[in-house]
Write a structure and sequence with these properties.
By secondary structure, the chain is of the alpha/beta class. The mean pLDDT is 95.
Length: 204
């Protein structure tokens, strides 16, 4: 039926995935006290789940995308003109973590229409309910090409791209491959504070 989220096709394992190299600089708006490389298995995350084959590391190509992925739902629930975050509850508990992936990961890019057509998906597939997106994550994790990651569109920052990295055993062992390092507290980021003022997001 038109408008129904697409499930992974039954023959996905037999389709050739068009791979790309994922490398360069990425960011996380991360909780302080958590590991810098924070593998996620929560059922409340977009491509994660305790029953899936691998946990997922969520990265963003831009700092601001990481910010929206972290706080966008809460801000969207607030009325225009009175959007705000608490310094102690929100920003003070977070830090930027920068990743520098120099040895490329084997990935697919589901922000590209040809890739979506190849795998039997559409533009709404990876923005669907988590019950759908987690099934797609499981299908991609289980594909015989053993891809390591995939690019997807941020749900909260328009056309910006994010990267979901599968926690395959060799990647969890080779932590230096990610070049993860703390990149400072959010409240110490003058660029972020200027962005919040520009967006009329108050700090309480």
């Amino acid at each position: 039926m038109r408008g129904t989220p697409r499930q992974p096709p039954t023959d996905l394992a037999g389709r050739t995935l068009p791979t790309v190299a994922a490398h360069g600089e990425f960011y996380r708006c991360a909780a302080k006290g958590r590991p810098l490389i924070d593998w996620d298995k929560r059922a409340t995350s977009r491509f994660s789940g305790p029953t899936l084959p691998f946990p997922v590391l969520y990265l963003a190509e831009q700092k601001i995308t990481g910010f929206w992925e972290c706080f966008g739902d809460e801000l969207n629930d607030q009325p225009d003109g009175s959007k705000a975050l608490y310094r102690a509850k929100h920003l003070d508990t977070r830090q930027w973590v920068r990743f520098r992936i120099r040895r490329p990961l084997t990935a697919i890019d589901v922000t590209k229409a040809p890739t979506l057509r190849r795998i039997g998906a559409d533009a709404g597939t990876f923005l669907a309910d988590y019950s759908v997106t987690q099934k797609w994550a499981e299908a991609l994790m289980s594909h015989p090409q053993e891809i390591e990651a995939f690019y997807y569109r941020s749900r909260l920052d328009g056309e910006a791209r994010c990267l979901a990295v599968f926690g395959r055993p060799h990647l969890k062992r080779l932590t230096r491959r990610f070049g993860a390092a703390s990149a400072g507290a959010l409240l110490e980021d003058a660029g972020l504070l200027a962005f919040l003022a520009e967006q009329d997001i108050g700090l309480l």
